[in-house]
TrEMBL record:
The lineage of its organism: Bacteria, Pseudomonadati, Bacteroidota, Flavobacteriia, Flavobacteriales. Keywords: Hydrolase, Protease, Signal, Thiol protease. The keyword Lipid metabolism does not apply. Gene3D superfamilies: endopeptidase domain like (from Nostoc punctiforme). Residues 62-189 form the NlpC/P60 domain. Belongs to the peptidase C40 family. InterPro entries: Murein_DD/LD_carboxypeptidase, NLP_P60_dom, Papain-like_cys_pep_sf. It holds the Pfam family NLPC_P60. This is C40 family peptidase.
Length: 189
């Protein structure tokens, strides 16, 4: 009898230890919070009644740029590695190359070659998902750095890139170093 009871307790215990994502739903005060998705979809935070959650979900659509940016952001904090394209280390063009490749957009591997793709865009017309190209350091005569625009807030452009000193980070174009090194913006999408 004690073996049967123990077996039943184990079965009940293991069946309730799932690692699936769950959302609560009720007709009043429903909340849907998903913080990590394996499909690389942008994180969604909705609160309110179930009807408003469903209405919001039906109106939300994600662009290819949103998915590429979300993919790139997962590498924030990864250390810099020249020629790197993985979580073990990444360089600026590797970050952009892998982010676009994930969504079947194949770009050249080097930033100077990426700058030959797409159409040139004036800074006042850039959108999230566009690329920023820079001439940095001692090599100011050629493009040697690339960043992916993730947001435009208060007339400041935020972009994700990988630097040799800090790894993958989000910077602002209004920072004097990046503004002085800026060369051009291009739209690939």
């Amino acid at each position: 009898m004690s073996r049967i009871t123990l077996l039943m307790l184990l079965i009940v215990g293991f069946s309730s230890c799932k690692s699936s994502k769950r959302t609560t739903s009720s007709s009043v005060g429903s909340t849907k919070i998903i913080t990590k998705k394996s499909t690389n979809e942008p994180t969604v935070f909705n609160t309110g009644t179930q009807n408003s959650v469903e209405a919001t979900a039906s109106k939300v659509s994600y662009s290819t740029a949103d998915y590429i940016i979300t993919f790139a952001k997962q590498f924030e904090g990864v250390r810099y590695k020249w020629g790197g394209t993985t979580e073990a280390g990444m360089d600026c063009s590797g970050l952009v190359y892998e982010s676009f490749k994930t969504y079947d957009i194949i770009l050249p591997r080097a930033s100077k070659d990426m700058a030959k793709r797409g159409e040139k865009v004036a800074l006042k017309d850039v959108l999230h998902g566009d690329l920023l190209f820079f001439k940095t350091g001692n090599r100011r005569n050629s493009i040697n750095h690339v960043g992916l625009i993730v947001a435009i807030r208060n007339n400041d452009i935020e972009f994700i890139h990988s630097t040799s000193s800090k790894g993958v980070i989000i910077s602002r174009l209004n920072e004097s170093y990046w503004l002085n090194a800026f060369h051009e913006a291009r739209r690939v999408l």
